[in-house]
Design goal:
16 helices; binds iron/sulfur cluster; about 500 residues; nine-stranded mixed beta sheet; three-stranded antiparallel beta sheet; binds S-adenosylmethionine; alpha/beta
């Protein structure tokens, strides 16, 4: 579940020309007369459904100053971050396992399609070599708080190869007391052996891609996956002992109707996963390698029709006992994602929402992104380049970004809004020179009822949560200073 946001965010170095200024300025930048007095929900959607980031990082990947970092600088910041945090919270590891047997034509992830399973072994070897390069930067044994296998499809790999990978990583690492290990799985390729083997190695969370159960939608996205198969694998995961099972659903897929979405959610309710991701379909066909095809724009539910799918889904989730967590996610009250929202420890990073934060997140595998809290770095995006550099003992990063002081303050506000739907600048440390400009941008959204600002505190009311990406955009100084002129981001709603 979490991984996909990572991938989409990383995969979207392009979007739609920002023809519309969300902040109500005319072409010359002058404030327009406000027209919001009688805004209906539909009007609001029309007004605010614009291209925008999903904020799995700040700065967002297209705004990285790529030459602010190189492998040596990345190694240094990782080593410092490790020293500062390993003994206390430990570190997180994300491993990208990119292969899938067949292409789902809606997919926006970094994946490689093949039926040749000979690719598994060399890839695992390269990931372990990359891990060895990181180990040389660490002065003590890493304490692993979180280990996440994302993709692509981790269960493309055989149980034996996944065990070899996990044992290789954990040979030089110890789990923290409250460690969380999870993986993403395609229901069609997940076997009992996968579930058993990963369970034995400490995995307790798994998330299955479901998307939608309607036969026409499944056929259009080239992903035939009957409900019975998902039931079987979900039951098997529960029997094995997995304590947090998640399903990924997507709204806005080609040919999807309100009735499909409700039917999919009702079927999902029967299986009662602990968590749900309910992603807005990101239509980004201009990105090289996504392979989004086989349907036309006219087949996609748009604007109000798409939002209606979300609203109906959200109501149904609530009737079924799920609580909304941040953006796109729902969980039962017994799941720790819900508990972390309640106790204010919910965090968001390249893996999406997580129940706790570590200062250091190491990303292994092609296209993975690491975060040292002071900097980000992304690995090579092709398998041959990635494997060659990892096997030479290099850190195979090809771009990154060192955060400025301003970036850190803006990141705090964006994280607060994405995770807790509120932020505050009472503390001078949470202020920055251009804060007034950001607040001016928010005035119109306040008048439209999307937020309240009082006593240096901004709160997003529940009905305005769908607009949270737009609200974050008002703090995104890099976006404000340099609006993209070519396609970069998916639509916010
Ligand atoms: C890496 S896949 C999950 C594991 C496995 N590959 C599978 O498909 O079952 C990650 C998830 O990202 C979501 N996803 C992929 N492409 C998307 C897109 N274009 N828009 C929204 N969500 C998308 C899907 O819900 C998918 O299950
Ligand atoms: S959605 Fe399909 S193509 Fe995309 S990662 Fe999952 S299995 Fe692969």
């Amino acid at each position: 579940m979490v991984y996909m946001l990572t991938v989409i965010a990383g995969a979207i170095p392009c979007g739609v020309l920002l023809r519309f200024d969300p902040y109500g300025n005319d072409a010359s930048g002058n404030k327009k007369v406000r027209q919001h007095a009688f805004m209906t929900h539909d009007n609001l959607i029309q007004k605010y459904n614009i291209p925008g980031p999903r904020y799995t990082s700040y700065p967002t990947v297209p705004y990285w100053e790529a030459d602010s970092i190189d492998p040596e600088a990345w190694a240094e910041t990782v080593a410092n971050s490790f020293e500062a945090s390993n003994a206390s919270e430990g570190i997180s590891l994300y491993v990208h396992l990119p292969y899938c047997e067949s292409l789902c034509t809606f997919c926006g992830c970094h994946k490689r399609i093949t039926k040749r399973h000979e690719v598994e072994s060399p890839y695992i070897e390269a990931v372990l070599n990359e891990w060895r390069s990181y180990l040389q930067l660490f002065t003590t044994t890493p304490r692993i708080a979180e280990l996440h296998y994302g993709g692509g499809t981790p269960t493309f790999f055989s149980p034996d190869n996944l065990a070899r990978l996990t044992e290789g990583i954990l040979q030089e690492g110890t789990p923290t007391e409250h460690f969380e290990y999870g993986f993403e799985a395609h229901p069609n390729s997940t076997t009992r052996e996968h579930l058993d083997s990963l369970y034995r190695l400490g995995f307790r969370r798994c998330s299955f891609g479901v998307q939608d159960y309607d036969p026409l939608v499944q056929q259009t996205i080239n992903r035939i996956q009957p409900f019975e198969r998902v039931r079987e694998v979900t039951d098997a995961a529960r029997d094995t002992g997995y304590t947090s099972i998640s399903h990924d659903l997507v709204f806005g897929l080609p040919h999807q109707t309100l009735a499909n979405v409700i039917d999919t959610i009702d079927k999902t309710g029967e299986l009662r996963p602990d968590r749900l991701a309910f992603y807005s379909y990101a239509h980004v066909p201009w990105i090289k390698g996504t392979g989004q095809r086989g349907f036309s724009e006219a087949d996609l539910p748009k604007d109000e029709a798409k939002r209606a799918l979300y609203e109906a889904g959200k109501r149904r989730f609530s009737e079924l006992g799920y609580e909304e967590i941040g953006m796109d996610h729902f969980a039962l009250e017994t799941d720790n994602l819900y508990q972390s929202m309640q106790n204010h420890s919910l965090h968001r990073n390249f893996m999406g929402y997580t129940a706790s934060a570590t200062r250091l997140m190491v990303g292994l595998g092609m296209s993975s992104i690491g975060d040292s809290w002071d900097a980000f770095a992304q690995n090579e995006k092709t398998v041959p380049e990635y494997e060659a550099r990892a096997n030479r003992g290099e850190l195979p990063v090809f771009r990154g970004h060192f955060l400025t002081d301003e970036d850190r303050v803006v990141r705090r506000h964006i994280l607060n809004i994405m995770c807790h739907f509120e932020t505050s600048w009472e503390d001078p440390a949470e202020q920055f020179p251009e804060l007034e400009t950001c607040l001016a941008k928010l005035e119109e959204m306040q008048a439209d009822g999307l937020l309240q600002i009082e006593d240096q505190r901004l709160v997003v009311p529940e009905h305005a949560r769908p607009f949270v990406r737009n609200i974050c955009m008002a703090f995104d100084l890099r976006l404000l200073r340099n609006a993209p002129e070519t396609r970069i981001f998916s639509m916010t709603i």
